[in-house]
């Protein structure tokens, strides 16, 4: 009944292990790996609804100048301050390379004027000042938001009842700054600013180390890429865990727990019994499973209000990196107000195969999805040609990945907190529910929604479980960092 | 393989019908009934995940002064302007009776002062003025929001990026008015005002005919109750449809459609093939099913952001309606700021068995859920005793229903639109997706989230389907009222 033999299986099976991990994305696999690494005697089963491991990472092969090469259609960037993913990459023997960002960049906002710049956007002075103060304000506010439990911030209630859109309307006095910030948040979250709680944005920003780290491609947000693609991380982890322990095409249907065991039944009727379970599925997916006893109200109220964003990613390969020859970095930020194109970066592979990567997100991606594939491709190429010249239309290969259409994921890159639910954030995302522990990058306290957050959250859940099953393998220091239920979290509401 | 024989079924079955209706709540059953009533030759199958029909209605038996009697733990109120449910009640031979509202009412707000009143709350004059202007403002704004497609309103974008909480903070200049309005919206939606898009509230209010109709128990919102309970409506509909056509315990897993058929597979592996399908499941539940091809982006983005509210309803039965004897109506509105109790009304049965009904909602219900059952009961009784005297603690029976714990429903009374998703409301909720039509009370254009809306939406989907399968049974006039895709809906965004 392993991943390969799955199709042949005739009747429902019953499997008993120590720990069941639900979700074979980076977080679930990190949890399973950490468990088996610390104690190889632990029997672990990983259940995955899809037919592959890797979750929101996905590496694909495209036609390239040198024949063919691989690119990432899902999560791809890592950075030096993203310690959890960097350590794992090193441990697995993978290598990173820098995001190319030399040369001039392009920006187009609502006034339709194409501007080039190197470090500081060539926007009117007053727009730059406005943007600078907005980002400084966000940094200053976000530093007041505790990462473990954002609702402990003294302005939590107020900031959680305002959307990012409303906040920017109040703060920005130039249309340009508002539009530039709109673009950045849209690409970052895959959601419109009107769909995002201000407190959620502030917590995410703080967890990443500030707006600079998030947005500046020379900093940790988009600093490095992984040679050969990020899905390798999951594939290598799956090998280490043992493929016979990973059950693909096994969507979870019901979850029943009592004082001694958790019984997890998949849609095919297979039953997995375990002492502890780790759920790394996305919040709304977890909420759609049938829990008995049912999920605590605080989890449910958060999960229901943390939908995935909506993002389409495209990769375009070229014969030459013509933009580099002409002194451009390949970076384009184009206001969603005037067209579909939102963000483009150089994606030339470490083998030197030239490419660009770009994103369409949120409301733009919704419109986008309703068009025919050929029209979408033509629209992207002509939009890029507006900046980089007609050569942009002569590509070798073009592929797009609509994460909203990905089964069991239904969006990306991360899940976005709507207004009015952050009160449940700490207890909803991280607090164990009897014998069930909760991971997934959304529950991370550093770089949540990033690859690194997925690893951090996975390791945390492994430590929580080991604390119960193999207490000798975890230190008091590690246990403190689980922080899954800060005592302070309840105080304010009681 | 009907509802009763279901347990005996050994191997997956394959059923072929003309129409599959998913969901045996009031909307799905209304759709199936309308289909078979107009053309008895139509083969219809209704799939239901739960082990009962009735959805968000649920009637239960309690100890009562006269031995025992029945009360509604789910949706219960109907009103004379709710034409769809009133016609159905008459057709089914059921009777309604008036909500008792004679005598003095109680109100307690953040100042902890208990006030009694008959028609106008005995609040300070300036609070009343403030509340009056707030409601007038909401009525005036909501009349500008087209019910079929709220996003056609000229302020749609702005109003959809503001929460109801933020709007009230801006509008109210007294704490009392803000608190009173908070209570009303909280009970109405089962969600905190910070979780609700202002545009969504305005559209809902307009669909119900204004704030007066919604809040005043003498008007249509809470005008009548159904003798014997509202679940009878679904039970009687199920009989008319034929119990052999209703498949309980059949949660839908995958939905595949091509140019000729829809194939719906349940979690047990049964396959239902049909020409047209009607989904009346709640938005987030529908989103969690596997559609192939996948749901259009506009549906997905709306469904992900329309979570169910969270509400706990309790019924308390008494030997005597002592509050009536003392000149009180039984109505209590108590600010959630000071305690758990939010809303209470007289629930004396048409047989004269005295009772009270009450609600705890949203953040109060979340705290509530984490307490022990005995403590919850004691808290409710002592809170009511604060208003009605010590007799309130001497009840015959007490029952509570936490709708957040109801499988496949996960909340109530309705689903609440978060900020930033109303642009997809018309196309997301009502536009058919190839051979699949969408009902459910959330998609109604009159009294949505009410019982009447469920019936209206069910009949609309039936007419849509009949238009394709039995065109001679529908009139042009009826077809116009389907309005599932107003031409105007796209114009603004294109």
From TrEMBL, chains A, B:
Q: Give the GO molecular function terms.
A: monoamine oxidase activity; primary methylamine oxidase activity
Residues bound to FAD are 27, 48-49, 252, 442
User: What reactions does this protein catalyze?
Assistant: a secondary aliphatic amine + O2 + H2O = a primary amine + an aldehyde + H2O2
**Which residues does the record give as substrate binding sites?**
359
Q: What EC number(s) does this enzyme carry?
A: 1.4.3.-
* Segments forming domain Amine oxidase: 26-466
- What general EC class does the enzyme of this chain belong to? oxidoreductase
Q: Which cofactor does it need?
A: FAD
Q: What topology does the record note for this protein and the membrane?
A: Single-pass type IV membrane protein
Q: Which GO cellular component terms, listed alphabetically, does the Swiss-Prot or TrEMBL entry include?
A: mitochondrial outer membrane
Out of the domains of life, which is the source? Eukaryota
Q: Where in the cell is it found?
A: Mitochondrion outer membrane
Q: Which UniProt keywords apply?
A: FAD, Flavoprotein, Oxidoreductase
Family, according to the entry, reads as follows: Belongs to the flavin monoamine oxidase family.
What protein is this chain from?
A: Amine oxidase
User: What's the source species for this entry?
Assistant: Lingula anatina (Brachiopod)
């Amino acid at each position: 009944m392993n991943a390969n033999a799955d199709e042949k299986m005739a009747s429902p099976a019953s499997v008993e292990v120590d720990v069941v991990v639900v979700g074979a994305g980076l977080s679930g696999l990190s949890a399973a790996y950490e468990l088996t690494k610390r104690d190889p005697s632990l029997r672990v089963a990983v259940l995955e609804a899809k037919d592959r491991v890797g979750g929101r990472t996905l590496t694909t092969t495209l036609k390239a100048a040198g024949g063919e090469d691989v690119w990432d259609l899902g999560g791809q960037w890592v950075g030096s301050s993203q310690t959890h993913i960097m350590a794992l990459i090193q441990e697995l023997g993978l290598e990173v390379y820098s995001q190319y960002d030399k040369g001039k960049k392009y920006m187009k906002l609502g006034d339709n004027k194409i501007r080039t710049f190197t470090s500081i956007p060539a926007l009117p002075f007053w727009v730059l000042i406005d943007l600078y103060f907005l980002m400084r304000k966000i940094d200053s506010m976000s530093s007041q938001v505790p990462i473990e439990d954002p609702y402990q911030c003294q302005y939590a209630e107020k900031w959680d009842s305002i959307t990012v859109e409303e906040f920017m309307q109040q703060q920005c006095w130039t249309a340009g700054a508002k539009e530039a910030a709109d673009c950045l948040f849209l690409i970052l979250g895959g959601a419109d600013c009107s769909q995002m709680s201000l407190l959620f944005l502030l917590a995410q920003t703080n967890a990443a180390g500030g707006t600079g780290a998030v947005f500046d491609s020379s900093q940790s947000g988009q600093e490095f890429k992984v040679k050969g693609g990020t899905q390798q991380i999951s594939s290598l982890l799956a090998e280490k865990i043992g493929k016979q322990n990973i059950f693909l095409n096994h969507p979870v249907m019901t979850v029943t727990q009592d004082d001694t065991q958790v019984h997890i039944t998949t849609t095919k009727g297979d039953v997995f019994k375990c002492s502890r379970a780790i759920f790394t599925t996305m919040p709304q997916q977890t909420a759609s499973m049938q829990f008995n006893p049912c999920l605590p109200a605080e989890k449910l109220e958060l999960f229901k209000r943390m939908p995935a964003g909506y993002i389409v990613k495209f990769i375009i390969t070229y014969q030459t990196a013509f933009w580099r020859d002409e002194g451009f970095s390949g970076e384009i930020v184009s206001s969603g107000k005037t067209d579909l194109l939102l963000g483009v970066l150089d994606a030339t592979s470490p083998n030197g195969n030239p490419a660009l990567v770009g994103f369409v997100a949120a409301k733009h991606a919704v419109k986008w999805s309703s068009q025919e594939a050929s029209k979408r491709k033509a629209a992207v190429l002509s939009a890029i040609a507006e900046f980089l010249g007609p050569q942009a239309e002569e590509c070798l290969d073009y592929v797009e990945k609509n994460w909203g259409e990905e089964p069991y994921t239904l969006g990306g890159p991360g899940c976005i907190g709507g207004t009015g639910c952050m009160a449940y954030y700490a207890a909803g995302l991280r607090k164990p529910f009897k014998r069930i522990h909760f991971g997934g990058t959304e529950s991370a306290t550093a770089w949540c929604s990033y690859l690194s957050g997925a690893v951090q959250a996975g390791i945390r859940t492994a430590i929580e479980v080991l604390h119960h099953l193999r207490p000798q393998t975890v230190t008091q220091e590690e246990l403190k960092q689980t922080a899954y239920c800060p005592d302070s979290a309840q105080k304010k509401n009681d």
